[in-house]
Amino acid sequence: MKKGIAMLCALMMICMFACSGSAVGADKLTMGTSADYPPFEFIVLDASNSQSYVGIDISVAEAIAADMDKELSVMNMDFDSLIASLQKGDVDVVLAAMEETEERLAAADFSDPYYTDYPAMILVKADQAENYTSLDSFANKSVGAQTGTTKADIVTGQMPGATFVGLTSVNELVNQLVYDKVDAIVLDGAVALQYAQSNDSLAISSVELGEALLYRVAVQKGDPKGLLPAINATIQKLLEAGSIDTFAETADTLADQAIE
Ligand code: ARG
User: Fold this and answer.
1) 59, 70, 229, 260: which one has the fewest Cβ atoms less than 10 Å from its Cβ?
2) How far is the CA of 226 from the centre of ligand 1 (A)?
3) Residue with CA at minimum distance from ligand 1 atom 5
4) Domains of the chain, with CATH numbers?
5) Closest ligand 1 atom to the C-alpha of 149?
6) What is the pTM of this model?
7) Whole-number Å distance between alpha carbons of 36 and 224
8) CB of 31 closer than 8 Å to CB of 74
9) What letter would DSSP give residue 130?
10) Is 171 close to ligand 1, i.e. is its CB under 6 Å away?
């Protein structure tokens, strides 16, 4: 009998050890993002000079993780790899100023919207801005957008005669515009405004595009990890408390320090 109890205790100890061991992974919520998109996700140097991820989406993900009693871990990658990483299970959630599209819905599930952006905008050189009066005036111009985004679809679908330049990095696209390698780039509204504000040589074209856009959290198709109910509950809580506006204000104050 005594032996039996000792065995049981030993087994319980092993289980406790093994279970807490496996719980290390489960205590983390891994977010995939493409941190080239202020004010939503970008990189700054923290007090100890190491890189840290900040922005509206990072703050939203931190709140989601905290409500789940998990620690947030951020995986930075090209925007066009995000859905595949989600499918492979390398990341639990994607927050990347991502809109729900038909194509993406075939590969992932989406939360309720947590952010309503302005319509997309066209960023141009300030001294060229008056040359562009309609979508047609971009004919024979080279217009950039980030690969795999709905902004790339705008260039190829709504700007007749424009030459599409697709790059994976938004920072690189902005550089190309600054150095006149492309004539314009299409970005989400808040992002275009951010770059125009931090760079005197850039301006928002008066040519308008579509409607306001909604950003959502993506999870694996069918939500096998059962994350969506908790994600939606946190989103509702944040929206009701006005917290996302506060996140946006904080992101604005940090955006000038973006190193990427
Ligand atoms: N809103 C666009 C889309 O859903 C572009 C998002 C790009 N995001 C980023 N973090 N670079 O396709």
Assistant:
1) 229
2) 24
3) 149
4) 26-116+214-259 (3.40.190.10), 121-204 (3.40.190.10)
5) 12
6) 0.89
7) 29
8) yes
9) G
10) no
